[in-house]
Amino acid sequence: xxxxxxxxxxxxxxxxxxxxxxxxxxxxxxxxxxxxxxxxxxxxxxxxxxxxxxxxxxxxxxxxxxxxxxxxxxxxxxxxxxxxxxxxxxxxxxxxxxxxxxxxxxxxxxxxxxxxxxxxxxxxxxxxxxxxxxxxxxxxxxxxxxxxxxxxxxxxxxxxxxxxxxxxxxxxxxxxxxxxxxxxxxxxxxxxxxxxxxxxxxxxxxxxxxxxxxxxxxxxxxxxxxxxxxxxxxxxxxxxxxxxxxxxxxxxxxxxxxxxxxxxxxxxxxxxxxxxx
Length: 277
Description:
Layout: H1 2-11, H2 19-43, H3 54-59, H4 61-74, H5 76-79, H6 96-105, H7 127-140, H8 159-169, H9 171-174, E1 181-182, E2 188-189, H10 197-206, H11 221-236, H12 250-276
Antiparallel strand pairs: 1-2
Helix pairs in contact: 4-7, 6-7, 6-10, 8-11, 10-11
């Protein structure tokens, strides 16, 4: 009996003028909460490389031989036994160690399934194995090398210069806050929040997928370091306004404000109208 009474009491509010607004607000806040939980979980995947001696692995014949074995079992099906390429994958002759390390260390390769964009995922190979694969491919033909510690020394770079370079060369695709954005034909520029300095540098010198190549004539080593410093700053920069809303810019922020403010005004207007009756 008491249950039926509670049901009847709740059913009265279904026809209330503000019922639709309440449902809309609950749905928006629920969606936003789920998004925040997912974003925080993704940010925990830092993708930081294990501490290994890159130079010794790249120059060790045993590492190159191990890379050859890994390639034969995990890569040759698409790229050919000698990395010459097949109908299912491009040639890797001349791509260099930096390109292989970037693709494998970010989990983009081996590719899970064909599509417009190769997505970042949890790496299948360890950092040492990724370097062994890179060493093997580099032994086949010269190409862009993995950046050295000196090239990755971005701590003393100019942050303001990095911001200018990023806005001029990167923000068109990766958005002004480095959170990524949509491109054409189902492609997209990925978020840079999970990219490590070595991965950012490798991407600039190899131009993965739709990204252009920024060689040392386009961006000097010092300018690349400045860009890396700015991206690292974006990862940890505070949000003075509070809720960041993904930092996707004025469209998202405007929609949020429009929904909340206009929704509140509509609710006030309905309440005044009901009271006037």
